[in-house]
Amino acid sequence: MTRPYRLVFICSLVSTLGLGSILPSQSTTAAVESCPTPALSRFQRHIVARGETLESIAQLYNLVPATIAVMNSSVKNGTVTVGSELQIPPYNGIVVEVPQGQTWRQVAAKYKVRADAMFEINGCQKDPRVVFVPGVNGSSNRVVAAPTQPSQQPTQLSGYPLSAATTVALPYGWQINPHSGEVFFHSGVDLAAAVGTPVEAIAPGVVAFASEQGSYGKLVIINHSGGLQSRYAHLDSIKVNAGQQVKKGDVLGTVGRTGQPAAKQPHLHFEVRSSSSLGWTAQDPKAYLKK
Q1: DSSP characters over the chain
Q2: Which of these, 40, 161, 162, 264, has the minimum number of CB atoms within 10 Å of its CB?
Q3: Dihedral through CA 156, CA 185, CA 215, CA 21, nearest 10?
Q4: Nearest CA to 263 among 131, 166, 122?
Q5: Distance CA 24, CA 30 (A)
Q6: What is the pLDDT along the chain (291 residues), one digit of tens a residue?
Q7: Residue 60, phi then psi, degrees to nearest 5
Q8: Cα 47 from chain centroid?
């Protein structure tokens, strides 16, 4: 094809490109504090049953029909065949082969996608050959929204996760890893604090997670109203349980060194994320930190 950004059918990745070669290695992601499973390895298989249509299948997975159509060469003129197998992506989007001599950042710019969101969705890979571009309709190359869902009233998070304001050991955004010298996206802010310092909930909510999780170490996640979420990582101890209701200022745990912190000095890694069609998307915590 002569187009500079070549769309790729997901079913052809294994045979033509080798799926294993496009997924991130452990060494690539070790320094990043939140690397979800790459979108390309989260595809599901769906066998078309009698009575199903492209539209009904898309609705089942909360996608637009064009997303499924562009991923599957078996879909002809919007029609699916009973018994055929469809590859279902985790989000609306397309799979694009990165042109030789270009980078995934240039692909993100081409499709007007947030670079940090694309970085995380692709498993924090340094130099991927094939990328999942979220929120793009493959038939028109336009950004699309997920099917309409009940709206939530936004909430105003305003608080501080420590008893006293402190210095920032590492800010939010694109940073240079002090150990490897590589550029990576820091999805939160590191607040300097001594090991054992109590960590407090920034706002009322429900504890969605309270346990160990990879490079985060001991992690507490709180879901707040309005589709917002706060995360507290590298804890030494955890004082709450999943499903527990918490109030602003409740102690969640204590500062520690668990996981793989990016900053060397003891700190709390704090994040704010918002719910979207791309999952929980990182936001700059600076706007929410008020003491």
Answers
A1: --SSSEE--GGGIIIII-HHHHSPPHHHHTT-S--PPPGGG--EEEEPPTT--HHHHHHHTT--HHHHHHH-TT-BTTB--TT-EEEE-SSSEEEEEPPTT--HHHHHHHTT--HHHHHHHTTT-SS-SEEEEETEETTTTEE-PPSP----------B-SSSS---EEE-SEEEE-TTT--EEEE-SEEEE--TT-EEE-SS-EEEEEEEE-GGG-EEEEEEETTTEEEEEEEEEEE---TT-EE-TT-EEEEE---S--SSSS-EEEEEEEEEETTEEEEE-GGGTB--
A2: 264
A3: 130
A4: 166
A5: 10
A6: 334 556 555 544 433 333 333 333 333 333 445 567 888 888 999 999 999 999 999 999 989 898 899 888 889 888 999 999 999 998 888 888 888 888 888 988 888 888 888 888 898 888 888 899 988 765 555 544 444 333 344 447 889 999 999 999 989 988 876 666 677 788 899 999 999 999 999 999 999 999 998 889 999 999 999 889 999 999 999 999 999 999 999 999 999 999 988 778 899 999 999 887 667 888 899 989 987
A7: -60, -35
A8: 27
Span 75-109, pLDDT tens digits: 988 899 999 999 999 888 888 888 888 888 898 88
